[in-house]
Amino acid sequence: MADAAVPVEVIYTPSARESLQGASLTSAALIVTVSRNVKSEVRRYTRAADGLWSFSLVDLPRNGVAGLADTDIRTDRVFYSYNDMITPPSVFMAETSAAIPQVVQAQPARFDASNLEVHQYEATSRDGTRIPYFIVHKKGIRLNGETPTLLYGYGGFEVSMEPTYGSYTGKLWLERGGAYVLANIRGGGEFGPAWHQAGLKGKRQVIYDDFISVAEDLISRRITSPRRLGAMGGSNGGLLMGVMLTQRPDLFNAVVVQVPLLDMLRYDKLLAGASWVDEYGDPDNPTERPFLEQISPYQNLRRRADMPEPFFVTSTKDDRVHPAHARKFAARMEELGMPFYYYENIDGGHSAAANLVEGARRRALEWTYLTRKLMD
User: Fold this and answer.
1) Total domain count for the chain?
2) Which of 31, 83, 122, 252 has its CA 20 to 30 A from that of 60?
3) Is residue 6 very low, low, confident or very high in pLDDT (cuts 50, 70, 90)?
4) Distance between CA 345 and CA 360 in Å, rounded?
5) Residue-level pLDDT at 1
6) Would you please indicate which residues are annotated as catalytic (active-site) residues?
7) Are 327 and 197 members of one domain?
8) What is the mean pLDDT of the chain?
9) What single DSSP character describes residue 65?
10) What average pLDDT score do residues 135-162 get?
């Protein structure tokens, strides 16, 4: 780039609600994958004789996640990948990058999606930021607040929550009449690094406000109600669930807390915790500790009449997030006389399952719990 003989041109710059996902050359075009408001858009860029670049959209579905499976600079043939919340992972192929891609291979459907529909809505967080979320449910549901609904979130480490195909969710929840919601709260990477950095360290309350705003929006739209609304999250998402239990338990009737961080005043002393100080803040830093004291679920747990009966899932051999987080929180709930469910698998590391049988058992416990709590 320092060599003046090599010209550098800007072809694409993401807007505030976009992020670049990837780019690849064919013999005739530059194929660029963009996430636009958390849905994929594939662009075919070409350069005219006057040197100006322009693009056309590749004719792929635009309600999910698309990618470049394979390109070759010696030809103009392109293979694309695609899936969404009700479409199994599929491969599309176009003989030329200008042609309409056709499905050449797809995984079999794992659940019946013929009567399902997907929508994207936005909630308004406490500071006015628009928070997008996806919801999938049966067609023609009645807006009476009675739809059993599961809200999932993560919100950290610049990890984007994309609307992808979920076999277990579809078979064990959607087919039974439940609705599933994926929240694109801050802390993730949906809109680039700024979306993540907005919730770092002492600014992290915005992440929790975002999740709360999505829950409240679902209730205000009368899709569901606190009686029918559940939440699920794991690891950093388990911390999110712990904060919901201590800040807004009134919004939920079921909370699945998977392999969670919950003691944010000692997290850096346990296993890999010290490597997350740049994300959460340093409990030993007198300027950063007060915020952690304010949001740490373990230290802020109090007996409340509106507390749902949560389900904690962890693993004895979790080598990333120590099971002490879940153990201590559950023990404190027991001291306070508040009921809960607790499952600690002795194997499995951070997934709380070491093989397919253990994974099936864990998921069966989680979805049975949600069914009993949220469905009649």
Assistant:
1) 2
2) 122
3) confident
4) 12
5) 59
6) 235, 350
7) yes
8) 96
9) E
10) 97
Confidence of residue 133 (pLDDT cuts 50, 70, 90): very high
Same domain, 127 and 91: no
Q: What is the CATH number of the domain that holds 237?
A: 3.40.50.1820
In terms of C-beta density within 10 A (0-12 exposed, 13-18 middle, 19 or more buried), how is residue 97 classed?
buried
Burial group, residue 49, by CB count within 10 angstroms (0-12, 13-18, 19+): exposed
Task: Indicate whether 301 belongs to any domain.
Answer: yes
Element (H, E) at 357: helix 356-374
* Nearest partner of 71 among 32, 100, 20, 18, judged by Cα: 32
- Say whether both 234 and 197 belong to one domain: yes
pLDDT of residue 7: 77
Tell me: pLDDT of 3 over 80.
no
- 207 and 60 together in one domain: no
Domain that holds residue 102: 18-106
Q: What are the backbone angles phi and psi of residue 289, rounded to the nearest 5°?
A: -65, -40
pLDDT in tens, 317-374: 999 999 999 999 999 999 999 999 999 999 889 999 999 999 999 999 999 999 999 9
One-letter amino acid of 318: D
Name the domain boundary from 63, 88, 106: 106
Q: Please identify, among 53, 80, 106, the residue that sits at the C-terminal boundary of a domain.
A: 106
Distance CA 273, CA 346 (A): 21
Strands, E assignment, 140-247: 149-152, 179-183, 229-234
Number of residues written out for the chain: 376
Residue 8 included in any domain: no
